[in-house]
Structure formats: structure tokens, C-alpha cells
Amino acid sequence: MDIKRPESVARTRRNRRVLWGTLLVLTLAAVTFGLSRLEPAAPTLDQSTVLIDTVERGPMLRQVRGSGTLVPEEIRWIPAMTQGRVEKILTLPGTQATPDTVLLELSNPELETAVFDARSELEAAEAGFKNLAIQLESQRLTQEAATAAVEAEHKQAKLQAEADAALAKEGLIAPLTLKLSQVRAADLEQRAKLEGKRLEIAAAGIEAQLAVQQAQVDRFRGTHRLRVSQMEGLRVKAGTVGVLQQVPVEVGQQVTPGANLARVAQPGRLKAEVRIAETQARDVTIGQVASIDTRNGIIPGVVSRIDPAVENGTVTVDVALKGELPRGARPDLTVDGSIELERLESVLHVGRPAFGQEESTIGLFRLTGDGYAERARVTLGKSSVTTIEIRAGLAEGDQVILSDMSQWDAYERVRLN
Length: 417
Known about the structure:
Blueprint: H1 7-37, E1 44-45, E2 52-54, E3 56-72, E4 75-79, E5 84-89, E6 96-97, E7 102-107, H2 109-169, H3 175-232, E8 235-237, E9 242-246, E10 254-255, E11 260-265, E12 270-277, E13 289-293, E14 298-306, E15 314-321, E16 334-351, E17 361-367, E18 372-383, E19 387-392, E20 399-401, E21 413-416
Parallel strand pairs: 1-21
Antiparallel strand pairs: 2-20, 3-12, 3-16, 4-11, 5-7, 5-10, 6-9, 7-8, 9-11, 12-15, 13-14, 13-16, 14-15, 16-19, 17-18, 18-19, 18-21
Helix pairs in contact: 2-3
């Protein structure tokens, strides 16, 4: 038969189960907490796939670098003097040109008519000037003859009055006769003075009228000279010594006055136009030392101009070349330019990391010497093309990884093999 167990036995079993359950939960919690406190295993990195550099103390040359082209210092664009049609292109780009070298020929039938009309107007004006000069000279001579005649009559009347005065003293002629002689002499004297003034006025009038006619002749002569110059401009010449670089027109094309027909430059006098990133160009100043790499030699130079405008995130810097040009240096040749900003003395510096701007704080993996590399917080200072200043976080002799380590951002150390 069944015997009923005491209540204490059941209570003891329940307590034991609760105790074991509690111990199991506490054990799992402890294990979980311990595992959560463990750091993840350091990933392994092949040391030959990364760039490692050593922190050094010493002078650091700050530079900025950019690409650009060689351009002539003196460029002459030859414009069209008048409207016309391109008939012939006589000289091709790359040809050495002199001031009298004819580059191309234009045609303009209307200009030929204008030259003929201007020449006809000039000839008519010159003929009119000569005719007017003859007429005025004839008038002057007529006035001069009239003046001379009056002066002669005045002299005769004066002599007659003097003779009558002598006869009157002796009583040989009547006083009335003497009086008439004296009146006639005085009248002719006055007429002679008036004729003399008329002669002076006539001479002045001749000069004024000839000046007016001469001004008209000069105006027609200037118009004719302009038309002839435009006609000569249909044969487009280089006008300077250099190399023809460009002819931006084609045969048969109509051009307007002022349109560029050709570009001539002196290839022996070149400068470099280097494009520097906007963020790096703020420290560039005129007079700084630069060097231009043509891939066939390096030419020293000096910064001569800084373009105030920013284009596509870059600033154009002109570098005046101071050395001899290497063989193959020609306009539009692609070059690389380096500009020296300043020299820092006795500073900690290292190779520039893949990601790290100047005046910022970044994380770099520093080699510990036991086959591992640990992340270190590094404060960067001024930068150059290939090096950057270390303000804090590293010491002289430390070795750091410069390659991109962004894929290991979740780890504080990596293992190198």
C-alpha cells in the first residue's frame, strides 16, 4: 500500500531544485560577463603589404606640388585688320616665322573699291588745293599791284605838293593851286595806307583758306592711307620673330575685324603654369623657390605670379624659369612643379600617411617590437609633399604604418607576420 511522504521531503526537493537553478543562472551570467570582457583576437596583417616609416627628428622642407604646362612668356595674337574671306593658309603651325613672314591671305572686293574711291577723293582734293592756291595767289598779286599803283600816285602827288609850295613862296602860283596839291597828296596817302591794309588782310585770308583746304586734303589722305593699310592687312604677316603655334581659321571662312587669325610665340622664353590645390596654395607667395620637372630634366625657377581666381579647386601659379631648358622643352609640354614653402628646423617628422591632413589628430598603428602594432593617437602639424610634422603621440625612432588601415578601425592592435 502507498505511504504518504512527509511534507518536509517535498519542500526539501523544491528548495534543492531552486538552488541548482539559481547556481546555473549565476554560472551562465558569470561566463557571459567574462567573455564580454575579453578583447577580440588581433587580426593578422602581412607586413610586406603595408608601408612602414620611422619617425625622425631634423630639418623638414615644406613643399607643395602640382601639375601644369610650359607656356611662352611672350605670345602675340594676330588679329584681322578688316573683314574678309580666308583665301590661303601659307604657313603651318610649328614653322619659324619672321616679322615679314606671310601667314595667310584674305580677300575683300569691297575693300578694293574703297581703296579706289579713297584715292580718287584724295587726288580731287589735292587738285582743288592747287587750284585754290593759284586763284588766291592771283588775287594777292592783283591787290599788290593796286597797292603799288596808289603808292606811286601818292609819291607823285607829294612831289607835286612840295614843288607847288616852293613856287607859292615866290608868288608864282596861286595859293588855291597849292592847297589843291596838298589835299590830293593827303588823299593818296590815306588810300595807300588802306590798300596796304587790304594787302595784309588778303595775305592772311589766303593762309586761312589754304589751311581749310589742306585739312580736307589731309583727311582724304588719312582715309586713303587707312584703306591701303587695310588692303595690305589682307596679307597677314607674323610681325615678330617666333614660332607659329596656332591658326584657328580655315580656308573659306569669313572673319570680322579683330578676330584672331594666328598665334606666334617665342619658344626660347618659356614659363611654367602650375596648378596647385586650393587648400595648399594659401602658403604660396611670390619669390619662393620652385623646380619644374619636364621628365627630361629639372629646371629651377621662382614664383612670379599667383592667379587670384580659383578654377576647379586649383590656383594657377606662374613660375619663371631660371635655368637652361632641356631638350624637348616646348610650349604646352606637361610638367610637374614643386614649390618650397619653408624649412622647419629640428622637428619630429615622418612620411605622410594615406589619410592625415595637417593640423589634425588621427590614429596611426605604431609597431611595438613584439610582432604587433598598436593604435596611437597622433597630433599632426605642418605638412609637405611626402612628409608631415609630428606634434604629439610619437617619439623619435618609432615605426608607424602609413598605409590605409581603415579596414582595421574596429581593432586597437594588429599582428604582423
